[in-house]
């Protein structure tokens, strides 16, 4: 089997999806992280595509190295990794389709058929009372965990922060049996992280996410040593080498790789092996509820290192809610999503919707 064409479709001007076509009529699909999609499209079609044309997509590890070299990914990082992620996912999709097995089978088999998810709120404009009401409404829909994004990204110890009042209202609204997760996007100093973290411990918060940015390994370690609440981090790093440092030097309790960043199944397997070696659980970072979520479902089904509920974005997403790009959209039932069992990713994109959204 040989790759004949590679394309990146930017849906609704925001969501970069990729398709890899082959000479055997099998097409693989993937999704990239949505930051700066116009640059992602350029990287996919002008930088990475020439390294893939004419080669076997089922040799996923070798193709991964081809893309890393072509994109100078180690030096360039960031958006190059995000572009590689979608293509790696698409080639695993092809491999599964060629063998007529789901990706979770290629990863070694699945431990479970349903993946529990938590409701991840991206709103930053709600009052504490409004956030509490929203969380309670989601619990009524079947979710048993809720994540809020508080503090002010890019600031440090900003006086407008209402994390503790908000968590207090959410806890009062949902009761003691619902997990609360708090993400502050690295916007606290070390001493304030410890102060807030102790208050979060008293409120029974499940995990405290990114009190400091992932690059401040020493700061994260000081916070982790001072608190009993689990410290989670990892959404802003890309390679297993960086996760090694996050675990050993940052001393975090939970790592949060995102398959549309890390990049793809090929690198995710290495991170999973690290997590297993060091006994550090994974809770995936996942804000894109289409192919990214599907890919994470396969990984979570196959890995023994994902014991907790996984992230699911509850905010309005045009390609899920207004113009569903999946022929059979994913369903959250009682806070769980079923793992697809079809070949490859096990889902199909609606070609008519793709065409409409890529021309918007």
Short key terms for the protein model shown above:
three-stranded antiparallel sheet, alpha/beta, Enolase-like, domain 1, 11 strands, eight-stranded mixed sheet, 2 domains, 360 residues, 15% strand, TIM Barrel
Structural summary, described in words:
By secondary structure, the chain is an alpha/beta fold. The chain folds into two domains: 3-100, Enolase-like, domain 1; 105-338, Alpha-Beta Barrel (TIM Barrel), CATH 3.20.20. Helix content is 42%, strand content 15%. The protein is built from 14 helices and eleven strands. It has helices at 37-52, 60-70, 73-76, 79-99, 103-106, 128-140, 163-174, 190-202, 217-226, 240-248, 264-278, 291-302, 318-322, 351-358, and strands spanning 3-11, 15-22, 27-31, 114-120, 145-149, 179-183, 207-209, 231-233, 254-255, 310-313, 336-338. The strands form two sheets. Strands 4, 5, 6, 7, 8, 9, 10 and 11 form an eight-stranded mixed beta sheet that branches. Strands 1-2-3 form a three-stranded antiparallel beta sheet, sandwiched between helices. Helix 1 crosses helix 4 (79-99) and helix 6 (128-140) packs parallel to helix 7. The radius of gyration is 20 Å and the shape is globular.
């Amino acid at each position: 089997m040989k790759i004949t064409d590679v394309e990146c479709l930017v849906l609704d001007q925001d969501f970069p999806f990729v398709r890899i076509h082959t000479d055997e009529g099998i097409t693989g699909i993937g999704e990239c992280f949505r930051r700066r999609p116009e640059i992602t499209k350029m990287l996919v079609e002008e930088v990475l595509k020439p390294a893939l044309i004419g080669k076997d997509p089922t040799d996923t590890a070798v193709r991964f190295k081809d893309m890393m070299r072509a994109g100078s990914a180690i030096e360039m990082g960031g958006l190059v990794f995000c572009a590689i992620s979608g293509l790696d996912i698409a080639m695993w999709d092809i491999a599964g389709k060629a063998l007529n097995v789901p990706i979770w089978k290629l990863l070694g088999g699945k431990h479970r058929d349903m993946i529990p998810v938590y409701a991840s709120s991206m709103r930053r404009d709600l009052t504490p009372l409004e956030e509490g009401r929203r969380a309670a409404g989601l619990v009524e829909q079947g979710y048993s965990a809720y994540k809020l994004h508080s503090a002010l990204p890019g600031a440090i110890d900003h006086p407008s922060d209402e994390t503790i009042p908000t968590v207090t209202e959410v806890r009062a609204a949902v009761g003691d049996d619902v997990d609360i997760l708090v993400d502050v996007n690295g916007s606290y100093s070390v001493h304030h992280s410890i102060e807030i973290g102790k208050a979060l411990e008293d409120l029974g918060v499940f995990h405290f996410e990114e009190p400091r940015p992932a690059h401040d390994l020493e700061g994260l370690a000081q916070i982790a040593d001072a608190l009993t609440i689990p410290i989670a981090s990892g959404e802003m790093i890309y390679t297993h080498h960086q996760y090694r440092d996050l675990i050993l030097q940052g001393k975090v309790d939970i790592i949060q790789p995102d398959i549309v960043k890390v990049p793809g199944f090929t690198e995710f397997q290495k991170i999973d092996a690290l997590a297993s070696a060091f006994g550090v659980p994974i809770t995936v970072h996942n804000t894109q509820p289409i192919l990214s979520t599907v890919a994470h479902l396969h990984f979570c089904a196959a890995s023994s290192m994902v014991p907790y509920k996984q992230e699911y974005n509850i905010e309005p997403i045009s390609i899920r809610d207004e113009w569903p790009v999946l022929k059979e959209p994913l369903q959250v039932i009682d806070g769980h999503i079923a793992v697809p069992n079809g070949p490859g990713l096990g889902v199909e994109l609606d070609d008519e919707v793709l065409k409409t959204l890529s021309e918007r």
